[in-house]
Amino acid sequence: MSSLNEIQGRLALITGASGGIGAACAHQLAQKGVHLALTYSSSLTAISSLVEELKAKYSVAGSPNAIRISIHQVDVASAEQIENMFTQIDKEHGQRPDILVSNAGHGKRLPNIWEIPLEEFDYTINVNLRASFILTKGVVEHMKNQRWGRIVFMSSIAGYGGGINGCHYASSKGGLTGMMRNLSTRLAEFNISVNDVAPAMIGETGMIPNAQAIPEVAAGIPLGRLGTPEEVANVVTMLVTTGYMTGQSLLLAGGLK
Ligand SMILES: NC(=O)c1ccc[n+]([C@@H]2O[C@H](COP(=O)([O-])OP(=O)(O)OC[C@H]3O[C@@H](n4cnc5c(N)ncnc54)[C@H](OP(=O)(O)O)[C@@H]3O)[C@@H](O)[C@H]2O)c1
What transmembrane ranges does the database entry give (predicted)? Predict the structure, then answer.
């Protein structure tokens, strides 16, 4: 029954679509005919050019298969702004998302605990972990009612103890994996899958523009190169089109542990 995993015509919410990984996810889902609600926080130029590109490629005006794309400015640290975003989505799409890719993330690079102010710890948890809780609450009733849903959190190798950042970032990403595992067991009966993708050293992103930005770390990647946003999007696409897989955290790290 291929319809189990048919996503054409579904609505996906991708947070942080103005960044490298989120934009790559938007491209792949648009190519599969998925309607998109895309968020940005500060990068209006990036999200605008992404939407222009997506419309030109996948949303030929007048075509019955044209996809709808909306953009929403949201600071995901704010529950109120997330709520306003859902009100806009209700208006523009007439439904809540069928697919949630909770990808927006913040990671100020402070490797040692003594450098991390309490405020930075709290903010990182709010953006990376608390937001995924609020976003999931915003989509789950709709997914339960229709007995179909896909939720993907963007975690990190940091959640496994690796990576180049400090314990504030690691806690936020490790927390996501814990929340994902719990939700996957609670939501399976409603045919909602919940997984996370845990990347490391992905280039062409705001976090890591290129290998020169982290020369020593890049030199130690067993595969000898950075990952690409498209490779992360490949895994996200696989998860949203493979509903039997749930409760998994998939490390995508070029051989790093
Ligand atoms: N690059 C890597 O190697 C790597 C490794 C592991 C995990 N990740 C995770 O992958 C995800 C995507 O990051 P990326 O690598 O694509 O980096 P990126 O290009 O810097 O993208 C980050 C995205 O998150 C958004 N964002 C940041 N703070 C936000 C906030 N408070 N509210 C709403 N949106 C916010 C940014 O929006 P604006 O630009 O519009 O402000 C941007 O769209 C993050 O969760 C990150 O932790 C990345």
Answer: none
3-state helix, strand, coil in the chain (%, to 5): 50, 15, 35
The CATH class that applies to domain 2-252 reads alpha beta
Tokens for 166, please give them: 């400090």
Structural domain boundaries in the chain: 2-252
pLDDT tens sequence across 154-204: 999 999 999 999 999 999 999 999 999 999 999 999 999 999 999 999 999
Q: What does the alpha-carbon distance between residue 83 and residue 216 come to, in Å, rounded to a whole number?
A: 42
Residue with tokens 């640290």: 77
Closest residue to atom 7 of ligand 1, CA basis: 156
> Does the beta carbon of 24 sit less than 6 angstroms from any atom of ligand 1?
no
254 lines ligand 1 (CB under 6 A): no
